[in-house]
From TrEMBL:
It comes from the Bacteria. One of its GO terms (molecular function) is oxidized purine nucleobase lesion DNA N-glycosylase activity. Binds 1 zinc ion per subunit. It comes from Sphaerotilus uruguayifluvii. Involved in base excision repair of DNA damaged by oxidation or by mutagenic agents. Acts as DNA glycosylase that recognizes and removes damaged bases. Has a preference for oxidized purines, such as 7,8-dihydro-8-oxoguanine (8-oxoG). Has AP (apurinic/apyrimidinic) lyase activity and introduces nicks in the DNA strand. Cleaves the DNA backbone by beta-delta elimination to generate a single-strand break at the site of the removed base with both 3'- and 5'-phosphates. Keywords: DNA damage, DNA repair, DNA-binding, Glycosidase, Hydrolase, Lyase, Metal-binding, Multifunctional enzyme, Zinc, Zinc-finger. This is Formamidopyrimidine-DNA glycosylase. The lineage of its organism: Bacteria, Pseudomonadati, Pseudomonadota, Betaproteobacteria, Burkholderiales. The gene is mutM. It catalyses: 2'-deoxyribonucleotide-(2'-deoxyribose 5'-phosphate)-2'-deoxyribonucleotide-DNA = a 3'-end 2'-deoxyribonucleotide-(2,3-dehydro-2,3-deoxyribose 5'-phosphate)-DNA + a 5'-end 5'-phospho-2'-deoxyribonucleoside-DNA + H(+); Hydrolysis of DNA containing ring-opened 7-methylguanine residues, releasing 2,6-diamino-4-hydroxy-5-(N-methyl)formamidopyrimidine. The active site is at residues 2-3, 56, 263. InterPro entries: DNA_glyclase_Znf_dom_DNA_BS, FPG_cat, FPG_Glyclase, FPG_N, H2TH_FPG, Ribosomal_uS13-like_H2TH, Znf_DNA_glyclase/AP_lyase, Znf_FPG/IleRS. Residues 2-113 form the Formamidopyrimidine-DNA glycosylase catalytic domain. Its cofactor is Zn(2+). DNA binds at residues 92, 110, 154.
Length: 278
């Protein structure tokens, strides 16, 4: 599933190339998670503004025509190139926007992604979809005090609390496992029991892991490709994720795999010990 690094890699690959482009036409394929919400023909003639990201959403402003809120879902990726440089639309290509600078195409085999029109970022449906998102993990607003306050009173395991996205947004499954390992925190520990020192470590490791993932082009476990069609490589740096039974790179203890909230969790039972009473 594309997480914050993959979405930001996508934004960075698009932002300067598509800004200022004029929309000529929009084509829809099979239905995505939510309907577009407007007549595709109404977007023709719009001028593309500066592409923005909020969590795992991308906002593509279209001037007086409002804008498009995009989500890559579980298997989506965006390509942008001259139409003649791209292969013909295939069965998994469900949105295309032809501009005077090239063709923007969403490929999404599982169709959990979305392209939704909104009159503005602060108007429904965009505002509704973004309303409950937590702070951006790479922003100054993400601090130990914010994290500790957001987790206070939560009995769910800390990994599930982070994945919920209402305290801090976009820390996906692979990055959550890696950040918790680097912080020495057991993913099963009750979220509300993390003390200030643990929250400080976790803020630092979340930032570090996400920044390294961005530098590596994100992670490609199956479907993700950037706007140039290239896969990410962060998964090759993983300390625990996907390494069940292999020796921990720090202490050589076999890495464990458990399932939390239907998501695979990887951790080192020696480097990430549960505090007494947790």
């Amino acid at each position: 599933m594309p997480e914050l690094p993959e979405v930001e890699v996508t934004r960075l690959g698009l932002v300067d190339r598509i800004e200022g482009a004029q929309v000529h036409a929009v084509r829809l394929g099979k239905p995505l998670r939510w309907p577009l919400g407007t007549d595709p023909q109404a977007l023709a003639g719009a001028r593309v503004g500066r592409l923005q990201r909020r969590g795992k959403y991308l906002w593509l402003p279209l001037g007086a025509c409002g804008g498009l809120l995009l989500h890559l879902g579980m298997s989506g990726s965006l390509r942008f190139d001259a139409a003649e440089a791209l292969p013909p639309a295939g069965p998994h290509d469900h949105f295309e926007m032809q501009t005077d600078r090239g063709l923007l195409r969403l490929t999404d085999p599982r169709r959990f992604g979305a392209v939704v029109w909104s009159s503005a970022l602060d108007a429904a449906p965009a505002a509704t979809l973004l309303a409950r998102l937590g702070v951006e993990p790479l922003s100054p607003a993400f601090s130990a005090s914010v994290l500790q306050q957001g987790l206070r009173g939560r009995r769910v395991p800390v990994k599930q609390a982070l994945l919920a996205g209402d305290v801090v947004v976009g820390v996906g499954n692979i990055y959550c496992s890696e950040a918790l390992f680097a912080a020495g925190i057991d993913p099963r520990q009750s979220a509300g029991t993390l003390d200030r020192a643990a929250c400080e470590r976790l803020v630092d490791t979340v930032r570090d892991v996400l920044q390294r993932a961005l530098a590596a082009g994100g992670s490609t476990l199956r479907d993700f490709r950037d706007v140039h069609g290239m896969g990410g490589a962060f998964q090759l740096q993983a300390q625990v994720y996907g390494r069940e039974g292999l020796p921990c790179r720090v202490c050589a203890t076999p890495v464990r795999r458990i399932v939390q909230g239907q998501r695979a969790t990887y951790f080192c039972p020696r480097c990430q010990r549960l505090p007494h009473g947790s």
